[in-house]
Design a protein that fits this description.
This is Lon-b peptidase. By secondary structure, the chain is of the alpha+beta class. The chain contains 4 helices and 3 strands. The chain starts with a strand and ends with a helix.
């Protein structure tokens, strides 16, 4: 009997897509788990971002007396955290094939899909 797998695609900017095979029926669970982890990370990053923004802007305005410097620092933190949030979105794979034979996955998606196991 031929082993069935689900094929997941991980997309990364500037790099070729990476395909991973997981046991049949596990693809949706892996995606859901990664999505929960992404949401938790985004919540933490946003809370940390606002804390750092408020502290840096407050320090620059009240203690240093340089409002423009505080706003610049707050804007920089805002942009850097926004970029990291976008990166977190790429960590969530997409199920591109469900319940396919391992050899068929290898032919369609390359040897990476055939040799991979659950992450």
């Amino acid at each position: 009997m031929t082993e069935l797998v689900d094929v997941l695609r991980f997309s990364r900017a500037g790099e070729p897509d990476r395909y991973v095979a997981v046991p049949a029926g596990e693809g949706a669970r892996v995606v859901a788990t990664r999505e929960r982890e992404r949401c938790r990370r985004v919540r933490i990053l946003r809370a940390l971002k606002w804390f750092v923004v408020l502290v840096s802007a407050g320090y620059a305005a009240v203690v240093a007396g340089r409002v423009v410097l505080g706003l610049f620092g707050a804007g920089l933190v805002h942009v850097l955290v926004g970029v990291d949030i976008l990166r977190a979105r790429r960590a969530v794979p997409e199920v591109v094939a469900a319940d396919v034979r391992r050899d068929e996955a290898s032919e369609r998606y390359g040897d990476d899909a055939a040799a991979s196991t659950a992450e």
